[in-house]
Amino acid sequence: MHRQRGFSLIELIFALVVLTIVIMTTLTMFAERSRRLQQAGEMMIAYQALSNQAELVRRMNYPALDTFAATPEDEFDVSASLLAVLSPYKTNIEIEVIRPEVKRVTMTIRWSKPERVASLELIRVDTGASNLW
């Protein structure tokens, strides 16, 4: 018998298939990681904008919430440059009177396709004190 050198064609094809699977899995992982990092960044920006808006709502006089509710939706008072990363986006503020001295303020941001949503809810109570507490 003579000695064989090298690999057979089947061994080479099998090695290429395994290598292809490894490379495709790695590329898919990196693409998914990038997508999730972008989503996480967008979510952080959305909740920062909601937090800023919540602070503005918290500092409003309790009676002023009624006139605030009458303003058109899709208007946050936070900087538009903060939300520009999420363009196109929609904002909404809903004020629900639970009792005469208690109101629920729900702030929502919607962006992206498929639609992503971040929302924050506050309960405001008329304590009779100043707007800072």
Which keywords apply here?
Pantoate--beta-alanine Ligase, Chain: A,domain 2; single chain; alpha+beta; rod-shaped; 133 residues; 47% helix
How does this model look, in words?
By secondary structure, the protein is an alpha+beta fold. It has one domain (9-125): Pantoate--beta-alanine Ligase, Chain: A,domain 2. The chain contains 3 helices and 3 strands, in the order H-H-H-E-E-E. The protein has helices at 9-59, 64-70, 80-83, and strands at residues 89-99, 102-111, 116-125. It has a 3-stranded antiparallel sheet with strand order 1-2-3, covered by helices on one side. Strand 1 (89-99) and strand 2 form a beta hairpin. The longest helix is centred in the N-terminal third of the chain and has 51 residues, at 9-59. The protein is rod-shaped and about 100 Å long.
Query: What characteristic shape results from the CA principal axes?
Result: rod-shaped
Span between N and C termini? 95 Å
What is the radius of gyration? 27 Å
Mean pLDDT, all residues: 86
Into which percent range does the helicity of residues fall?
A: 40-55%
Give the strand tally: 3
The percentage of residues in β strands lies in 15-25%
Going across the major beta sheet, what is the strand order? 1-2-3
Task: Label the structural class.
Answer: alpha+beta
In CATH, the topology is named Pantoate--beta-alanine Ligase, Chain: A,domain 2
Would you identify the regions where 5 or more consecutive residues have pLDDT less than 50? none
Largest sheet: 3 strands, antiparallel
What's the total helix number?
3
CATH architecture group name: 2-Layer Sandwich
Helix and strand run:
HHHEEE
What is the CATH C-level name?
Alpha Beta
Describe the oligomeric state of these chains in a short phrase.
single chain
